[in-house]
Amino acid sequence: MKILPACKTCIQSEFLCSSCQEKVDLGELTQFEIDLARELVQLEEEEPEKFGFLKDVSFYKAIDYEDVVIFVIGKKDKIKFTKNLLDLIKSSYEIETIILVEKTEKPRPVVDSLIAPSKLISLNEIFLATGDIEFKAVIPMEDKDTILFTKEELEELIYELTGNITRIEFH
User: Fold this and answer.
1) Which DSSP letter does residue 17 get?
2) Total-model pTM
């Protein structure tokens, strides 16, 4: 794999260096992410005919949100994740839904991924008097019940994934 949430040596050895241990202590890295990265590396090495594509994939983070897990992956890596791989991960970790989100600081692709198959009506940049910038995402009202997250959860996830404050509105 190109990028992992921890050192490849730490992931394979199950012992953490001081840098990776510090990430765990600060809450930047979870045991789930380490276990998942270990499984992905093992699949890449042990089954290259099925999962050789993993050598070109970046895996930054996994956010476990009850029955939904959000994988933060590299740009253009979404299409590389096969149904077989996703099904294997779902069964290994008893996950109902996996959402793939490409790592970016832009809120639009993140919102699109989190609300799929619903469509975003608009995303507006709001310039505050303080000089800060916030975003307002408008989603169709009829999609409110089909989206896996509440308005507050979406706002929190978008902030965690992009570092941008994004207000969600349903119209």
Assistant:
1) -
2) 0.92
